[in-house]
TrEMBL record:
It comes from the Eukaryota. PROSITE patterns: PPR (PS51375). InterPro entries: PPR_rpt, TPR-like_helical_dom_sf. Keywords: Repeat. PPR repeats lie at residues 8-42, 43-77, 78-112, 113-147, 183-217. The keyword Repeat applies. It comes from Alexandrium catenella (Red tide dinoflagellate). This is Pentacotripeptide-repeat region of PRORP domain-containing protein.
Length: 252
């Protein structure tokens, strides 16, 4: 303004996007609200960036209000709009609202993306809804949208929370057969699922598998294994795992 130049929708949208990337959700909301005061009409890009900023800060109600405001402003939300709203619900642990947004996306004639499925699986995992998570996980695969390592780990965590150790191992094995990357989170969730299902042998096999992949077991890994062996009254094995954990801590 000091130079006599007036910001337009493009520059304001760029500023809002910068706020979103720097986690300054309140400033993003202020900038969006400032546009009509300058006789500028916010575009979908500006709304999407503001929703993403709010979602990252776990302000899911504000994000959903912005999603509704897109249509109120005579605009049409796109896939990115839906993804931002679904991600906000995921972070706010609002899985029913996330699924409602998926329905809205489809009714709008839009196709879910890999980001859509990822946020939905994570939302269902946080809500303890392993059936819905697996349905979405499978649907993504049928749509030729292979899930990321993070989404696969979320799916396995959903199985662990739901006491579905066999399904957890199936998801893990399918990824291994396909040569897909697996992280320690996925292995830990699988081992925990086996522990809850009183399956100590598969749990120990997973320990060997993760080591072959060059991963290092952590406290979570050892705790689940010790519990699994303890449930099976394998005290010698439990003590050996505990000693290994203590030795690892000293080496660290």
């Amino acid at each position: 303004q000091d130079t006599g130049l007036q910001p337009n929708v493009i520059t304001c949208s760029a500023l809002i996007s910068a706020c979103e990337k720097s986690s300054r959700w309140a400033l993003a909301c202020l900038l969006l609200a400032e546009l009509p005061k300058r006789a500028l009409r916010p575009g979908v890009v500006a709304y999407n960036a503001t929703m993403s900023a709010c979602g990252r800060a776990r302000h899911w109600r504000r994000a959903l209000a912005l999603f509704a405001a897109i249509r109120e402003d005579g605009l049409l939300p796109d896939v990115i709009s839906h993804n931002a709203a679904i991600s906000a619900c995921e972070k706010g642990e609002q899985w029913p609202r996330a699924l409602c947004l998926l329905g809205d996306l489809r009714r709008s004639g839009l196709q879910p993306s890999g980001v859509t499925y990822g946020a939905l699986v994570s939302a269902c995992e946080k809500g303890g809804r392993w059936q819905e998570a697996y349905e979405l996980f499978s649907e993504a695969g049928r749509s030729c949208l292979p899930p990321s390592t993070i989404v696969r780990s979320a799916m396995i965590s959903a199985c662990e929370k739901g006491g579905q150790w066999e399904l957890a191992l199936s998801v893990l094995a399918e990824a291994a057969r396909g040569g897909l990357p697996l992280d320690l989170i996925a292995y830990n969730a699988s081992i925990s699922a086996c522990e809850k299902g009183q399956q100590w042998q598969p749990a120990l096999q997973l320990l060997a598998d993760l080591r072959r992949r060059g991963l290092l077991p952590d406290v979570v890994t050892h705790n689940a294994l010790i519990s699994a062996c303890g449930r099976a009254l394998l005290w010698v094995r439990s003590c050996a795992l505990l000693s290994e954990l203590r030795l690892g801590r000293r080496d660290a």
